[in-house]
Specification:
Elements (H helix, E strand, L loop, with lengths): L22 H36 L6 H32 L1 H19 L5 H29 L2 H13 L1 H14 L8 H6 L7 H8 L4 H12 L15 H22 L6 H14 L9 H10 L1 H57 L6 H17 L2 H6 L6 H26 L6 H8 L2 H8 L14
Helix pairs in contact: 1-2, 1-3, 1-4, 1-5, 1-6, 1-8, 2-3, 2-4, 2-16, 3-4, 3-8, 4-5, 4-16, 5-13, 6-13, 10-16, 10-18, 11-12, 11-13, 13-14, 13-17, 13-18
């Protein structure tokens, strides 16, 4: 099965982004996206179940301060593992090939997510999150490079956005598991992790269906003939023209991922807090005078409704985020990569402050929150598609997996550092989000140093 060269596009500039795409190119997008769907599921199943899993492992109630601290350590461990795995597997993909490395990453995160179902303590959960994340971080680096390399220039931004937007299905699967599996009993959260073994079946399809991109094959040929063209050398990211691109990429990813884990995911608290307040009132309590024990009894009596409200917030947030991801490519084709990033960062700052400073604390209605959450998600999550669009455009083929993986996953490292810090505090979720909101404006400043890549071919 042959793949048309993505760089022989000069005769088809009048085609729409979806016209002239071969069956094999669609197949690459589908398989890469499925890998990313399950990738995100493995990460988000922890978010969906952490209010049940960690208290069970610690033997305490969900409001115990130790639960929040251990959950933050779990986030930190996951992000640290993603940083390590993203760089390691990104380099490996430049050296041994995209499809081979994708198989390794999916097997890695599938096996360790399944093992998490058997965790017996909080520290085991935290450790296993590290190994799951190694595969998760690596899969993105490999798949984003592969999608970029097989698509024509006119289609690349939109296709890369669709690839990254497929993540919402992983989040929705995790939300569904969190909303319904929890009703099966106290240890039901373990089933959510157990089904994490299923993505391993995808590797059979990859093995049978995909071959290495033509650009990568040519890069390996050049490397065999010229020692200066070696593939997957991490040190080259910090030399010459690559240095500025690497610094900009790492900075953008760090801001996007820190705010994702510190602000975006807490959009799920919007309807959760509303449901908790409703439960207190329905139990005949005065929210102003009820003590902690009374509130916990009210929450326990309405556990299913509260959990489903939390998951509904997660779904609305994710639907909006999905639209933001899908449309990033088209917006960046109109405004340029830098213009699209600027738009998303500025509006994200406004939405985070509005939701966590005003709407939630002031008891906004469920209807208002339901309308605001998709807009909030559109901008706080949507910018992430820009990493799949932009980072592969910054590096030549022989460094594409290494560079894209390094930029995206060093963002995970920055986030891990932030959450290990948060793990030592008792700060509320809403206050975390407000503290991190100014980072969006820092991102706008970084764009002044960024290279514009709209309309350019991938570097050989």
């Amino acid at each position: 099965m042959s793949t048309p060269s993505p760089n022989t596009d000069s005769t088809s500039q009048n085609l729409r982004w979806y016209e002239g795409i071969s069956r094999y190119q669609w197949l690459v997008l589908l398989i890469a996206s499925l890998g990313w769907v399950f990738d995100i599921f493995e990460g988000q199943i922890f978010v969906a179940s952490m209010r049940d899993a960690m208290p069970a492992l610690l033997g305490v109630t969900a409001d115990n301060p130790s639960v929040s601290r251990w959950n933050d350590l779990g986030f930190g461990s996951f992000l640290l593992g993603g940083a390590f795995g993203g760089v390691l597997f990104g380099m490996l993909s430049d050296r041994i090939g995209r499809s081979k490395t994708m198989i390794l990453t999916i097997l890695f995160y599938s096996m360790f997510t399944c093992l998490t179902a058997f965790a017996q303590s909080a520290w085991q959960m935290v450790l296993l999150r590290f190994f799951v994340a190694m595969g998760v971080g690596g899969e993105w680096a490999v798949a984003s490079a592969m999608v970029a390399e097989v698509m024509p220039q006119r289609s690349r931004a939109v296709m890369s956005s669709i690839f990254h937007a497929s993540s919402v299905f992983g989040t929705l699967l995790a939300a569904a598991a969190g909303a319904f599996i929890v009703t099966l009993g106290e240890s039901a959260w373990r089933w959510g992790f157990a089904i994490g073994a299923l993505p391993a079946l995808l590797t059979l399809w990859i093995r049978w269906s995909l071959h290495e991109p033509e650009q990568w094959v040519k890069a390996r040929q050049r490397a065999s003939e010229d020692a200066t063209q070696k593939t997957g050398r991490l040190s080259e990211l910090f030399h010459g023209q690559n240095l500025r691109n690497t610094l900009v990429g790492v900075s953008l990813a760090s801001i996007g991922l820190v705010t994702f884990w510190g602000a975006h995911i807490y959009g799920k608290n919007a309807l959760l807090r509303h449901a908790q307040a409703t439960a207190i009132v329905e139990e005949g309590l005065d929210p102003a005078t009820a003590d902690k024990e009374q509130k916990q009894m009210a929450f326990a009596a309405h556990k299913t409704a509260i959990k489903q409200s939390e998951m509904l917030s997660m779904v609305l947030n994710t639907i909006g985020g999905g639209l933001g991801l899908v449309l990033f490519g088209a917006i960046s084709n109109r405004l340029g990569r830098k213009g699209a990033f600027a738009l998303y960062h500025i509006v994200a700052f406004i939405m985070v402050v509005w939701l966590f400073k005003f709407l939630i604390p002031q008891g906004a209605s469920a209807t208002v929150l339901a309308f605001v959450l998709p807009v909030f998600g559109f901008f706080t999550l949507g910018m992430h598609a820009g990493y799949a669009v932009y980072f592969p455009e910054l590096y030549p083929t022989r460094l594409r997996g290494t560079g894209a993986g390094f930029c995206f996953n060093m963002g995970r490292l920055a986030t891990a550092i932030a959450f290990f810090g948060f793990g030592a505090t008792t700060i509320t979720d809403e206050n975390k989000a407000l503290m991190l909101a100014p980072l969006y404006l820092v991102g706008v400043g970084i764009l002044f140093f960024a290279k514009e890549t709209r309309g350019t071919e991938l570097m050989e």
